[in-house]
Amino acid sequence: MTEFSASQVVYTNKLEQVYGLFVELIDENADSVTYRIVKEFEVGGGAYAVLQNESAGADDDVQILKIETSPEGEIQLTTIDDDDEWENVAELFDELTFPEEM
Fold this sequence. Notes:
Blueprint: E1 10-11, H1 14-19, E2 22-26, E3 32-43, E4 46-53, E5 63-69, E6 75-78, H2 83-97
């Protein structure tokens, strides 16, 4: 169970304001890959972006990254290195996307 709940989520659009609906990232092979911004939100003191590869289908996996601001004020996307944090955010995204039937 996640330590975050849907009621704690604040939706944001920091990336969209800067980049539009798509962001271009460099993968591990130094290739440029375009991702669609699926969701952006803040919860528990962190800001997160859910991205999907532009060529992916609707049911394909998404990437969840942390949104951080550099000392110069630039928005950056970073991987979530803490396994517990990643698991909590991933479970929260599932809860936001597929709420349980009541």
